Each structure stands twice: as C-alpha cells, then as structure tokens.
Task: inverse folding
C-alpha cells in the first residue's frame, strides 16, 4: 500500500502537517524562507527571481521518531495528473511541449540527495538553482519532495514507490515579472482505457506559464450529426500546473459504443475565463475490439435469476400455506 502524504493542495503550492492520529508520521518538514520571498505569510517558496541569479534554498527536516531515518530529497517539476490535480511526486515526468524553462533546467543535479537523520534530531537540507540569463516569462513551478525511505522501498518508471511510508512536498514558485494568465487548448481525443474501464479521453493543455485554479470541465459525446448525448461527464475543483496537460476522462458506463464517427462538446471554466471546444473523432473497429477484450463491463441485472428467485419464493409460500391449511383441517376434524 502506498501512503503518500502530499503536503500540497493544488490551489497553491504549500506545505502542511500530515493529518493522521496524533500527527505522528515520524517527521516534519518546513522551509526556511529567504529575503526574496514575495509573502512571508505563506509556507512555501514563492520567490521573486532575477535573470542569472543563483540562490540556495533550505528546508528543515526533523526526525520526531525514536529511530534513525533515511529520506530522499528531490526537486520535481509540477505536472497535472489525470485527476486534474497538480502533482509534485514524479521524478522524471514527460516534458510538456509548451514548457520552455522547467525545474530541471534551473535546479542543480546535486539537489537530489539522500540524507540520514538520527532519532529526535533535525537537519537543514540545501538545494540550489540558477535562473537563465534571459528573462523568463511567467512562473516556473515545482516542489521539493521529501520521501521517507524504508528498506523495502523501490523505484519504478521514474516515480517513487513508497510502501507504508510518507512524503511531504514544499512548493517552489519562481517568477521574474508579472503573472501570466493560463490558457487552454484541446489536443487529442481518443477512446482509451483506465483501470480496465473504457473511457473517451480529451487531452487538455495549459500552454501558458500560469497556474490554472478552480477549473470545472463539462463534456459530452454524441454521434456526428446527432444531438443525442451518449456519454457525459462533469468535474470541478481541478487545477493545472503551468505548461502541463492531462487526460480528462469521460466514462463509457453502460453505453456500448460501436465503431463510428463521434463529436465531443467540451466546456471549461476557471474564474472569469471560459473555453468551448467541439471536436469530431473516430473510433475504429479494431480499437473497439481491443478495448472490450480487456474491459471490466458494468454488472447487468440478471433477470432470469430474479425470476427463478420469485418462483422459488412463490413455491415456498404455497408449501407453507398448504401446511397451515392441512394442520387446521386436521385439528377441526378431531
């Protein structure tokens, strides 16, 4: 079981205490905010940077347990996962096509480190970054990710796999100028599968270096030229990292799609910004067969079983009624 306590919320990159009984996860993490912190009232690195600047950032990791602990520290690019949540846990995420300057471009490679902290002790961990010589537009967003390591931990596909352990993340936002508004575009629309469930996925991309907050997406699918809705999905309270993309999923549910041409109608809203997309797409026969071969289909009502149960209940009631009648008839005869 993976228990990753991400000390993040998507609205703002922040850090908070873990929420468990007695808050006893065995360690805490907090940032040492520097002078170029935009606001001292927030508990993540929200920094005003300048071109060519090199700066060291420090966090304090406190081991509150009675045993020595080992931690892995990485500085990760902020991405958007397929739940519409800003994610800081991926070590080597796929780079978005719109990302010009990312966390990996400015933070030194030796920022990734493993530290051992004795029982009931604390340690300051330092990471450093250098801004490009040319001014960077918008926000560079990432997180300092602190993972508690156990002997049975493993790494897989560029992600930290933590068994019965915890992780914190402290946001890092670097900006040199004014805030840039996020913007959306619709990329590929395809039939796909998530956790053995058939879905239609619409890839949404925030191609600007600005954080997208309070995102609500409403989507429906029809046949081309027909306004009857076959599939629909609405989801709110989502967010997107700057220069990132994710697959918004529309479940097939009980609707069995067939090969053919379809139309996606999708609206997205964030604050006073709104986007409308209409896209035709095709699902071919081989794709339908491949998806249905591995899909978990929704359970359909077994009407034959229901009928047999009703007949059985009727027979039992008839037997009980007959026995009661025979018992009364025998009693009256006596």
Result:
């Amino acid at each position: 079981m993976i228990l990753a306590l991400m000390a993040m919320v998507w609205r703002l990159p922040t850090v908070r205490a873990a929420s468990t009984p007695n808050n006893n996860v065995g360690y805490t993490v907090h940032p040492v905010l520097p002078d170029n912190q935009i606001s001292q009232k927030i508990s993540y690195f929200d920094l005003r940077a300048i071109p060519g600047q090199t700066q060291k950032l420090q966090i304090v990791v406190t081991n509150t347990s009675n045993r020595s602990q080992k931690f892995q520290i990485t500085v990760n690019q902020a991405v958007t996962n397929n739940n519409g949540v800003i994610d800081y846990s991926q070590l080597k995420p796929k780079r978005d096509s719109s990302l010009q300057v990312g966390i990996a471009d400015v933070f030194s490679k030796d920022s990734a480190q493993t530290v051992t902290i004795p029982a009931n002790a604390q340690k300051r961990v330092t990471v450093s970054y250098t801004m490009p010589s040319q001014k960077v537009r918008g926000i560079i967003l990432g997180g300092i990710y602190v993972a508690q390591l156990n002997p049975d931990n493993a790494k897989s596909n560029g992600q930290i796999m933590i068994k019965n352990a915890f992780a914190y993340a402290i946001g890092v936002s670097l900006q040199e100028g004014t805030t840039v508004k996020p913007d959306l575009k619709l990329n590929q629309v395809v039939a796909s599968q998530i956790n053995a469930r058939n879905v239609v996925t619409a890839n949404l991309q925030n191609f600007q270096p600005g954080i997208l907050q309070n995102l609500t997406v409403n989507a429906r699918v029809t046949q081309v030229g027909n306004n009857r809705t076959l599939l629909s999905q609405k989801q709110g309270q989502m967010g997107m990292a700057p220069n990132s993309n994710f697959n918004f999923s529309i479940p097939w549910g009980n609707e069995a799609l067939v090969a053919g041409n379809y139309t996606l109608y999708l609206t997205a809203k964030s604050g006073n910004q709104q986007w409308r997309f209409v896209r035709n797409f095709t699902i071919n026969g081989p794709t339908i067969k491949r998806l249905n071969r591995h899909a978990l289909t929704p359970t359909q009502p077994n009407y034959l079983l229901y009928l047999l149960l009703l007949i059985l209940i009727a027979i039992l009631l008839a037997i009980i009624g007959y026995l009661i009648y025979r018992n009364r008839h025998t009693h009256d005869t006596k």
About this structure: Residues 108 and 328 are 94 Å apart (CA to CA).
